[in-house]
From TrEMBL:
Gene Ontology molecular function: catalytic activity; iron-sulfur cluster binding; metal ion binding
Keywords: Iron, Iron-sulfur, Metal-binding, S-adenosyl-L-methionine
Domain Radical SAM core span(s) in chain numbering: 9-241
Organism: Gordonibacter massiliensis (ex Traore et al. 2017)
InterPro entries the UniProt entry points to: Aldolase_TIM, BchE-like, Elp3/MiaA/NifB-like_rSAM, rSAM, rSAM_sf
Protein origin, superkingdom: Bacteria
CDD domains: Radical_SAM (cd01335)
Annotated protein name in UniProt: Radical SAM protein
Any Pfam family the entry gives: Radical_SAM
Cofactor or coenzyme needed: [4Fe-4S] cluster
């Protein structure tokens, strides 16, 4: 396999066959991200993809799902993406689902016909790093999309028949701003229909610009109790039916459940954790976390 061993994938893709079709991220500007530093975005050469597919076909018994790997592989122009999807069909005929990361800003660049073509070619669902629905924080972190973009682009995926999972990043707005950010984000996410929302916690990983800002004092991280309050407020105010996946390694809490059924239990768990949390003791732990 040309695909390197240590690749990032959303937690719910643990069982998917991973196929690297791009390297890097076309945006590569989010202050909190160190995934693709020094990596120039480029599609993986087609011959490498073909060789990897042949190898997968020789070792995997009837895989049903493939994950296209990279920062935003589903953002490739259809002229490049569709031949990759055709290759999956040809080499792995048992595969009925293809997923991968897609930026909100990428959806904007695709026409409705492009999205319909992706769905027809087997793209069943995508994962978007929305992170937050409050513009001041999105802008501050250079996410490259706005709340209005999220509200415009996710329904276009739905109309094309492509499901989506979203990320919400607790503590994204920084100290003292999480309550407002959580309430505004809940308003935005409530108008969507995500299959799941994966909860992570804002962490200044080594090498990312956010770390420099935290160390210089230009950005103040929300203390852990405020992060828990942020996530609790977000979920308490979220009115869409969805899965909450909150067992990511960056979280100093574990919450998983189905909304609305498990809302009260999740919020109660977070409130209990918040009361038990010693912010001062946990601050060094956050700074020791190494990888997204
Ligand atoms: S968070 Fe996602 S969009 Fe932002 S730089 Fe990292 S990979 Fe790219």
């Amino acid at each position: 396999m040309h695909t390197p061993k240590h690749l990032r994938r959303p937690p719910h893709e643990y069982a998917s066959v991973m196929l690297e079709v791009t390297k890097g991220c076309t945006h590569n500007k989010c202050l909190f991200c160190n995934l693709y530093q020094g990596v120039e975005f480029q599609p993986v050469p087609l011959e490498h993809v073909i060789e990897d597919l042949d190898e997968i076909a020789s070792v995997e018994r009837s895989p049903h799902r493939v994950l296209f790997v990279g920062g935003n592989p589903m953002g490739l122009p259809n002229a490049r993406l569709v031949p990759l999807l055709e290759l999956v069909r040809e080499k792995l005929p048992s595969v009925s689902e293809v997923g991968g990361y897609l930026r909100t800003a990428d959806v904007k660049l695709k026409s409705d016909a492009d999205l319909a073509e992706m769905a027809a070619m087997g793209v069943t669902d995508v994962t978007l790093g929305t992170e937050c629905g409050w513009d001041p924080a999105l802008e501050r972190m250079r996410k490259g999309h706005t709340a209005a973009d999220i509200l415009e682009q996710c329904p276009r995926l739905e109309a094309a028949g492509i499901k989506y999972s979203l990320f919400y990043l607790g503590g994204f707005a920084g100290a003292g701003k999480c309550e407002e950010s959580a309430r505004e984000s809940a308003k935005v996410f409530s108008r969507l229909h995500p299959v799941r929302i994966t909860i992570m916690t804002m962490t200044p990983y080594p090498g990312c610009k956010l770390r420099e800002e935290v160390e210089s004092g230009a950005f103040e991280l929300a203390p852990e109790s405020e992060v828990m309050r942020d996530v609790a407020t977000f979920i308490a105010n979220l009115s869409c039916d969805t899965l909450i996946v909150g067992s990511h390694d960056s979280n100093l809490f574990r919450i998983d459940g189905v909304l609305p059924r498990d809302r009260e239990g999740i919020v109660a768990t977070l409130e209990m954790r918040q009361r038990q949390t010693n912010d001062e003791a946990l601050a060094p732990l956050r700074m020791r976390m190494l990888a997204m």
